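Dock DQA; give full complex structure.
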Amino acid sequence: MAVTVLLLSGPNLNLLGIREPEIYGAATLADHVAQASDVAAGLGLELEHLQSNHEGALVEAVHGARGRVAAIIVNAAAMTHYSWSLRDALAAFEGPVVELHLSNTAAREPWRHTSVVTPVATGVIAGFGGLGYGLAVEAVGRLLR
Ligand code: DQA
């Protein structure tokens, strides 16, 4: 059976490509997912993706990953900065968790400097734009080797 990696995308990421392109770039979420899937396939991994604007849907996706998925890559978008329920769900996940951001959140507004996800993540990839999606899959591939 193929080893599955779950990519989670938080609120407003469905608007990538038209939303603040000067910060997030012109590529769409579908472009990023396609890139991540290609890198995953090259590593013999299967990428599953869910985008939601609803906190509960993302929390339930993490629950559903337990015992089934080898690793989670999560761009929790604005939920990064306040979602204790997502943080607790990720803490209960047994595999590696890569926190991913298109922008360098540490170089932006002060409220973006806090991540409630970082303390339960294996590591963080931020500020590399769309390149980060492939980097995150590569990191997971190395960790699972
Ligand atoms: C983001 C950064 C967050 O602060 C923001 O709320 C997003 C996107 C990023 O990928 O750079 O929606 O996670």
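Observed: The beta strands are 3-9, 45-51, 71-75, 97-101, 123-126.
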